[in-house]
Design a protein that fits this description.
The complex is a heterodimer of chains A (109) and B (112).
Chain A (H helix, E strand, L loop, with lengths): L3 E3 L4 E4 L4 E7 L6 E7 L6 E6 L3 E5 L2 E6 L4 E6 L8 E9 L2 E4 L3 E6 L1
Parallel strand pairs in A: 2-11
Antiparallel strand pairs in A: 1-3, 3-8, 4-5, 4-9, 6-7, 7-8, 9-10, 9-11
Chain B lengths: L4 E3 L2 E4 L5 E6 L6 E7 L6 E7 L2 E5 L6 E5 L5 E5 L8 E8 L7 E2 L3 E5 L1
Parallel strand pairs in B: 2-11
Antiparallel strand pairs in B: 1-3, 3-8, 4-5, 4-9, 5-6, 7-8, 9-10, 9-11
The chains are: A mainly beta (109), B mainly beta (112).
Chain lengths: 109, 112
């Protein structure tokens, strides 16, 4: 079992719709959770982080964390073609980040 | 305010050679982490440096080594290059035990 798992996609979403991305992790000692966006050929860019159970909203993005279920998700509202990218879930335990394989999102006009 | 800077941007090496990659952290950050990202995969943690010492290491062989300088900049060295070392090498900095990593633009290493 991988430490951090994501559906590789692609997740195809019509413009203006909600994109829902999921991530599960195995280490119950994980302390904080991050979502990064990575455009093709570029480096990861931090979108959001969350460390308490529940929801955290930032603009069109909402992160949800359920530590009991070892599950973290990202919702992208009003999806735009510029949101087309790979979204990486990362889990922090100790000093390092452990990444999932990423979910590729395609927003179609 | 300069972010994380990495050099070189691209590099082509032959199997068996050695390579050194460089990273300057974001201003105010004292911790540097290195990641390897193969095509189509998420970044894999190599190691982290803090106060000029390796603080934590991932599952990478001893061919991968590093260094951090007093000005917090860092180098990643890879000896005896293999074809499988071809990847994007990412440097990330953070303010000590800070929440998130800020990534540099990466060095694309191709081993032929």
């Amino acid at each position: 079992q991988k430490e951090v798992e994501q559906n590789s996609g692609p997740l195809s979403v019509p413009e203006g719709a909600i994109a829902s991305l999921n991530c599960t992790y195995s280490d119950r000692g994980s302390q904080s959770f991050f979502w990064y966006r990575q455009y093709s050929g570029k480096s990861p860019e931090l979108i959001m982080f969350i460390y308490s159970n529940g929801d955290k909203e930032d603009g069109r993005f909402t992160a949800q964390l359920n530590k009991a279920s070892q599950y973290v998700s990202l919702l992208i509202r009003d999806s735009q073609p510029s949101d087309s990218a790979t979204y990486l879930c990362a889990v922090k335990a100790g000093n390092k980040l452990t990444f999932g394989g990423g979910t590729r999102v395609l927003v179609k006009p | 305010d300069a972010g994380v800077t990495q050099s070189p941007t691209h590099l082509i090496k032959t199997r068996g050679q050695q390579v050194t990659l460089r990273c300057s952290p974001k201003s105010g950050h004292d911790t540097v982490s290195w990641y390897q990202q193969a095509l189509g995969q998420g970044p894999q943690f190599i190691f982290q440096y803090y106060e000029e010492e390796e603080r934590q290491r991932g599952n990478f062989p001893d061919r991968f080594s590093g260094h951090q300088f007093p000005n917090y900049s860092s180098e990643l060295n890879v000896n005896a290059l293999l074809l499988g070392d071809s990847a994007l090498y990412l440097c990330a900095s953070s303010p000590g035990q800070g929440w998130g990593h800020t990534f540099g633009s990466g060095t694309r290493l191709t081993v032929v």
